[in-house]
Amino acid sequence: MAAPSSPTLSLRELEADDEHHDHFALLYETQSEQFAVAVPFVKRGLDRGERVIYAVSQNSKAGIVEAMRAGGIDVDEARDSGALSLVDLTEIYRTGDDFEAEEVLADIEALVTNVDEDRYDGIRLTAEATGFLEQGVDPDELLAYEDTVNELYPRLPFVGLCQYDRTKLSPTVTEGIVRHHPLLGYRDALGTNAYYHPDDGSADSRDEIGAKLEAHHEKATAVSENRQQERGITTLSEATQQLHEVETDEIPSVAAGAARRAIDAPLAAFWRYEPGKQELVLAAIDHHATDDVGDLTQFCGQAWETFVSHECTQRDVDGSVVPDSDVRRLTFVPVTDAGVLAVATERPDGLTGDQLRVTRILASAVHVAFAEATKDERLETKREELERLRTVNALVQRVLRAVVDGSTRDEVETQLCESVTALDPFAFAWIGDVDPDAETVSPHCWAGSGQEYLTDVLAAGVSGPTTTAISSGETCVVPAIADDLHTDEWRREAVGRGFRSVASVPIADADLSYGVLTVYATRPTVFTQSVSAILDELGTLVGQRITMVEQEAAFRARERRTLELELAASNFPFVQLAAHADRTFEVEDLVVKADDRVLAAATVTGASRDRVSDAVDDSVTIESGEVVHETADTYLLDLVFSRPFVGAALANHGAVLESITATPTDATLVVSEPEPMNGRLVPDLIADRYPELKLLARREQQSQPAVPGSPAAAFRERLTDRQLQVLRTAYHAGYFESPRHCTGDEVAEALDISSQGFYQHMRRIQRTLFESVLERDSSSRVE
Predict the structure, then answer these.
(1) Quick one: which of 46, 248, 267, 479 has the fewest CB in 10 Å?
(2) 410, 427 contact by CB (below 8 A)
(3) What does the DSSP assignment read for 351-385?
């Protein structure tokens, strides 16, 4: 069995470090979802020295043992020592008519109270609770117990996880479980439950519960990513300050500790370069649980390879490196001429891109700290270089603080400029981007003394480092503005206002550009080419933060706006289809699949199925495709493009490609986007692939009224996004025609879902339709 994946938020983050009073619920639909939370829950308890009991009802004990072993638990040792017990549900709980909330609560309290405090730090109990209902426990009594058991957690060393198979629960029971548990797991997300209201007696429908669980999943995932990023940035900020307050010999320990904490790694180490010996020495190891970390000297060769090549390298490891841990790989990051940082991860593919970026920034700060610590041994010219590095390091600290504190894009950009200019010798900072309509640089925000310079230079259309950074997408550094003073007009303007050096840093995240940060200093050579790598990483970090806050705003948005765009691009896939078929394609429903497939319902008047199929086969931008179904002049196309479809990039940022009208020469796209989203983001995403883009119209869309005006509106509003997707695909595939043009199994195959899943969706859709019509009819008669 493959090792179970871990939930998005670690149990260490959700459980208090000094108190055990957590009540978790897990709603799962598959065994893999169940074990992804249950196994780490058990392992967490064993690592904390707790007595762990697993009450079994749905799975076999052998299957649970196999999952635990795959998750890194030494089951035999834990069971032999008495720390872990696998028991039948009936050995711990009363069942059937004997299950009464108050009596079961007393049983659990006695179990917790009687734990051997000399051997264990508490008790951790998880139960496959679906078995209660299967063994005749009254649902009301079960929910009453789930409510009253919350009283135990604040006063006893007790952690509990109630596992429920959602596919076997009624909406009433599911709603009650959600309402009575302060901590909730759903699919791969584990987090604080916003719907925890034990005194609320309201009841939700199945669809409403599903919507709540989906919202909980998205929120927990977003909170996890936010916490990881904020932890890394906060640790960096603290470490860069601490590195300049400790003695030289203490720098390796500070570096290793900061590297481990910044990404919540199990272990980090630092190899320091000794110039006299011309070799690396293992100078520090930091581990979150124990000092027994095995023999890391076996990796000295790997560290030396990283130091010499000045390239990041990775090495697979086994359990000998960190006993009682799941470390899979070590990533080695060079620290210029100071040494090498190594960070361990439980991920088999090592650090993520974000984690590697944070580690590289820390490595740069460590290099600066070593350089400053040895400044008394340097020549006078070297002292000047160290002063520059210290200034840049202070700039890094301020940028990190601004990124953490900003909760919107405006706040991030404003605080970024203000925090930079509050530090000497940085006199002026601004963020700007190219205005595609005017073909000029347009400022977003600025701070410091230099607004007149900015106004004069931009008004004159003078090219400078900002323009260079925008066009190249790379950091542009001018160490001494006064050099070549008479070759560039912007230099004369800058020197005349006291500016002596400047750096322009692109702010970007993947394929998204948020402009360029340009910083002016009143001293020369503050910025050099040697610091451009640090500035590049910071620009990406700021871009990622802006993406995150804008995605959070999009998630909360209740209003959207619609953009109508004209695209004159012969290489746009649907324009190619229209050209080959010599017909206009009207595409209203597009489903972008996770495997880069796209299901598109296209209306093509006057074209036969063979002609449409030939157009698909002849398109150079379509890797593979076919006409799945045909209804009148509407065709359901199953397409795989030779490069990622632009609709996927839009969806990743909260926008939806609603429709396409493609002729043999151009296409009109209708895209809806959340109201808080940057109005230029959608055009920028499309123009990145197809530059010949024109914005035709922008219209605001109000959110749906609370009381719909028609049965159709009520029906549409009650459908989930997935149900609407299934309904549209079935409709266009001819499932509702008489006779049917396709079976439900064929629609399920096109959507990559099970046949049972398709028919379940259809039954829920039909019930929602009938409820919308009949409730409307009933209310009309009452009126």
Answers:
(1) 248
(2) no
(3) S-HHHHHHHHHHHHHHHHHHHHHTGGGS-HHHHHH
Strands 512-521 and 597-603: unpaired
User: Average pLDDT per run of 10 along the chain, which is 783 residues long?
Assistant: 51 50 85 89 89 94 92 90 94 89 88 88 92 90 87 84 91 86 81 75 64 66 61 76 84 89 86 84 80 76 90 81 69 92 83 84 87 63 66 74 76 84 87 68 85 78 80 86 78 86 87 85 78 76 82 61 87 90 86 69 86 86 81 81 79 78 92 71 81 83 46 68 76 77 80 77 82 62 45
**What's the CA gap between 748 and 751, in Å, rounded?**
5
Distant-in-sequence, close-in-space partners of 474: CB < 8 Å, separation ≥ 6: 506, 532, 536
Helix (H) or strand (E) holding 445: strand 440-448
C-alpha dihedral (418, 422, 424, 427), degrees to nearest 10: 40
Which three-class secondary structure state does DSSP give residue 300?
A: helix
The CB density around residue 396, as the number of other CB atoms within 10 Å, is 23
Query: Going along 260-382, which residue ranges are E strands?
Result: 267-274, 279-287, 313-316, 329-335, 339-345
Pairing mode, strands 267-274 and 440-448:
unpaired
Residue 670 contacts residue 551 (beta carbons within 8 Å): no
Contact at 8 Å (CB) between 673 and 683? Answer: no
SS3 562: strand
d(C-alpha 716, C-alpha 207), whole Å: 13
> Which residues are within 8 A (CB) of 218 and not within 5 positions of it... i.e. 6 or more apart?
189, 555
Q: Is the dihedral of CA 409, 411, 417, 423 positive or negative?
A: negative
CA distance 450 to 456: 10
Torsion of CA 547, 551, 553, 559, to 10 degrees: 130
Whose CA is closest to 667, among 767, 600, 742, 586?
A: 586
Distance CA 658, CA 592 (A): 12
DSSP code of 606?
T
> Do residues 27 and 184 touch, judged by C-beta distance below 8 A?
yes
Q: Strand order of the sheet with strand 267-274?
A: 279-287, 267-274, 339-345, 329-335, 313-316
What is the reported pTM?
Answer: 0.44
Residue type for 287, please? H
Note the pLDDT of residue 707.
41
Please, what sign has the CA dihedral across residues 331, 336, 340, 344?
Answer: negative
